[in-house]
Amino acid sequence: xxxxxxxxxxxxxxxxxxxxxxxxxxxxxxxxxxxxxxxxxxxxxxxxxxxxxxxxxxxxxxxxxxxxxxxxxxxxxxxxxxxxxxxxxxxxxxxxxxxxxxxxxxxxxxxxxxxxxxxxxxxxxxxxxxxxxxxxxxxxxxxxxxxxxxxxx
Length: 153
Hints:
It is built from three helices and eight strands. By secondary structure, it is of the alpha+beta class. It has one domain. An eight-stranded antiparallel beta barrel has the order 1-2-3-4-5-6-7-8. The chain is globular, with a radius of gyration of 15 Å. The model is unreliable at 1-48 (pLDDT under 50).
């Protein structure tokens, strides 16, 4: 599973790099990782990442991926393949949606997974959730599914 995610991220990085210096620098500005935190939230986030991954996410334009746990979200991009762990709170709503909110380095993250057939446009794979990730008001769309879904094998 990890190999598939890392291979996809590496391919995404190669695509971004091949799009020309203008697009590559624009993408770098939008997805550059924040500086390392110096507060205790880093320790909290690392501890939170110890729980099992419950949902995996993938998005395009810009390329991004994620792993959602009970109380953290790992957000990764081609420029940050290992990802950033965002501590926060997850809620399973009665209508089947899953919501996550958290903050990292002053950036607000809000994620909503909505049950629906989803295709990321890059493959024939169908996922079981549509994903909307908002980072400081900027929206990204993608697809998601349970971590043990064959979509992520």
